[in-house]
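Page 37, continued from 36.
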C-alpha cells in the first residue's frame, strides 16, 4: 500500500475532493466535486482517470446526486445513468453505478445509504489492491529465484498505480510491495502516448515512492525484451472478458506480442470488479473509446523558462486517430493477478470467480 495518499476523499464539507490528474506531474492540485454533474464532467475531462478511480467517482457521484436531489429517487437514478455513460471502456464505472442504483432502489434513507455504499466500495478497493500487491510480489520473487537474479526489471504501460485504483494500484501494487520488502526492482515506464499517463503519472508516483525507474518511448519495449532487459511485463486492465481477453490502454497489445516473442512473462493485475462476465469475447465485443484527435496533435509541458505550454506537433491539417484502448487476446497473457489468486485467462477459470 502506498500509505501516503488517496486519489479522492470526502472533505470536511462533505463534498468529494479529488486529485486533479490533468496537472500532474507539474502541479498537485485538487478539485472539489459537489454535484453528480461535476462527477460526470471530472470523469469525461480526465480530472480523474483509471478504471478503479472512475468507478469510485461514479459511486460518490450517485451520493452527491442523492444529496443534491434530497433523496428524489427518479432524479438520482437519472443522474446515476448519466454518470454510467461518461466513458465506455472501463467496466468498473458501470459496475459501481449499477451497485449504487441497487442501493437507491432499496434504501429508505437514500442519502445515508449511498454515502455508506460509496465508502464501502472505496474501502473494498483498498483491500483488493493490497492482496494483488502481495500475490504479484510473490510471483516476482519466484521468477527471481528461478532465474537466479538479484535485480528485477519490470515493464509497465499507462498508469495503474494509486492514482488509478485505491490505494496501491493494480499493476503498481506488486512493485510497491516488492520495494517494501527490500527487493531490488527497476521499472521501465512506457510513456503511453497520446496522454502520457506513464511519463507524467506513473513516473511521478514511482519517484515519490523512491522506486528506481526509467521512462521509455512506447516503441522501446520490444528492443529491451530482445536484449534480455525485461524480466516481466505487468499492466492493469479496464475490462477483462469472460474468455480472458483484456482491454487496457492503447499499446498494451503490442507489448504482449513482443513479450510472447521473447518469452517474457506478461501479467495483468486487476480486481475482480474489472471482469465483465457477460462479455464472451473481448477482442470482438469490448467497446473501445475514441477520444479527441487533439490529444494526439497537441502536447503539454514546461518550456525552458518553466512555463506550462501547449504546443502542436503535427501539420495543422493532418487528421489524427485516437483509440483510447486495445484488447490483448487471452493467449498472450501469462496470468491474471487478482485478489482471489492467480487466475488463468480462460473461460473455465474466470467463470469460477462469478
Ligand atoms: O484513459 P485512462 O487513463 O483512464 O486509462 C487507464 C488505463 O488504461 C489503466 O491502465 C487501467 O485503468 C488499469 S488501472 C486501474
Amino acid at each position: 500500500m502506498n500509505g501516503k495518499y488517496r486519489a479522492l476523499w470526502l472533505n470536511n464539507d462533505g463534498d468529494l475532493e479529488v486529485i486533479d490528474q490533468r496537472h500532474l506531474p507539474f502541479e498537485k492540485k485538487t478539485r472539489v466535486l459537489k454535484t453528480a454533474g461535476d462527477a460526470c464532467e471530472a470523469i469525461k475531462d480526465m480530472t480523474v482517470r483509471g478504471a478503479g478511480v472512475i468507478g469510485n467517482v461514479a459511486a460518490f457521484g450517485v451520493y452527491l446526486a442523492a444529496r443534491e436531489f434530497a433523496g428524489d429517487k427518479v432524479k438520482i437514478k437519472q443522474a446515476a445513468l448519466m454518470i454510467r455513460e461518461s466513458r465506455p471502456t472501463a467496466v468498473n464505472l458501470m459496475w459501481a453505478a449499477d451497485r449504487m442504483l441497487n442501493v437507491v432502489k432499496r434504501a429508505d434513507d437514500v442519502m445515508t445509504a449511498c454515502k455508506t455504499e460509496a465508502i464501502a466500495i472505496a474501502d473494498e478497493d483498498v483491500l483488493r489492491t493490497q492482496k494483488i500487491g502481495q500475490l504479484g510480489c510473490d510471483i516476482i520473487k519466484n521468477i527471481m529465484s528461478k532465474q537466479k537474479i538479484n535485480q528485477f526489471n519490470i515493464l509497465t504501460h499507462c498508469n495503474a498505480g494509486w492514482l488509478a485504483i485505491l490505494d496501491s494500484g493494480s499493476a503498481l501494487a506488486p512493485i510497491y510491495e516488492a520495494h517494501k520488502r527490500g527487493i531490488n526492482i527497476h521499472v521501465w515506464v512506457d510513456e503511453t502516448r497520446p496522454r502520457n499517463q506513464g511519463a507524467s503519472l506513473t513516473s511521478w508516483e514511482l519517484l515519490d515512492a523512491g522506486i528506481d525507474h526509467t521512462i521509455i518511448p512506447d516503441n522501446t519495449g520490444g528492443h529491451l525484451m530482445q536484449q534480455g532487459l525485461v524480466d516481466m511485463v505487468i499492466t492493469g486492465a479496464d475490462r477483462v472478458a469472460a474468455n480472458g481477453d483484456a482491454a487496457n490502454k492503447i499499446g498494451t497489445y503490442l507489448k504482449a506480442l513482443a513479450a510472447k516473442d521473447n518469452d517474457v512473462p506478461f501479467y495483468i493485475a486487476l480486481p475482480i470488479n474489472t471482469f465483465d462476465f457477460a462479455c464472451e469475447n473481448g477482442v470482438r465485443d469490448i467497446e473501445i473509446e475514441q477520444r479527441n484527435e487533439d490529444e494526439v496533435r497537441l502536447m503539454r509541458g514546461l518550456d525552458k523558462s518553466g512555463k506550462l505550454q501547449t504546443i502542436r506537433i503535427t501539420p495543422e491539417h493532418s487528421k489524427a486517430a485516437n483509440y483510447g484502448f486495445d484488447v490483448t487476446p487471452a493467449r498472450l497473457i501469462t496470468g491474471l493477478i487478482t485478489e482471489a489468486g492467480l487466475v488463468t485467462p480462460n473461460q473455465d477459470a474466470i467463470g469460477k470467480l462469478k
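Residues 132-351 form a domain with the Rossmann fold fold (CATH 3.40.50.10470). Flag for discussion at group meeting. The chain has two domains: 8-124, 132-351.
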